[in-house]
Write a structure and sequence with these properties.
Layout (H helix, E strand, L loop, with lengths): L2 H19 L2 H20 L2 E2 L8 E2 L5 H9 L20 H4 L1 E7 L2 E6 L11 H11 L7 H21 L5
Antiparallel strand pairs: 1-2, 3-4
Helix pairs in contact: 2-6
């Protein structure tokens, strides 16, 4: 094979690998990792005001809400305490956060099951209400770096599978 044909084949293979990185099967794990990072940070009691900002402690709970949670301990998630501000009373909203759609090079997060068993509100509605005082559904600067690394590692694996990287 001539050098021109070799280079043409390599370029074609690289374009194919890049197209594969946009495939649902490649972006889905990245979306799942974003959900995992958001869930862990939020359960630890941190939120983030806007995409790429530093994490910050979530606002404290009102004394009346602390009392409500104390009286309803049976409903309280295993991941929290009645005084802890971590957006986890029953745990439904965070537990059901998932990748809703993966198209092209875009991953959309949403809720696996939007309905709740304890109220007529949907998880998306609760998230919207809660986010006004305690923004949490953004990624921090560190989480974005982690996702970039996650993407790079997966892309490297893909290139190795296609024998474009040794």
């Amino acid at each position: 094979m001539s050098a021109v044909k070799d280079i043409t084949k390599i370029i074609k293979d690289i374009r194919g690998a890049i197209a594969d990185m946009g495939a649902k099967k490649q972006l889905l794990p990245m979306g799942k990792e974003a959900v995992r990072l958001i869930s862990i940070r939020t359960r630890l009691g941190y939120g983030v005001r806007r995409e790429g900002a530093k994490r910050q402690k979530l606002k404290s709970l009102a004394p009346s809400y602390i009392e409500y949670r104390k009286k309803n301990r049976a409903k309280l998630s295993e991941f929290t305490r009645f005084r802890k501000s971590n957006l986890t009373f029953t745990g439904q909203m965070i537990d059901r956060l998932d990748v809703k759609r993966s198209t092209g090079l875009k991953v959309t997060l949403g809720w696996r099951l939007d309905s709740r068993y304890d109220t007529s509100l949907r998880n998306s509605e609760v998230a919207e209400l809660v986010s006004k005082r305690r923004p949490w559904l953004n990624l921090t600067d560190l989480e974005l770096k982690k996702l970039t690394r996650f993407y790079s590692l997966n892309f490297g694996k893909l290139l190795k599978r296609k024998k474009l990287l040794t």
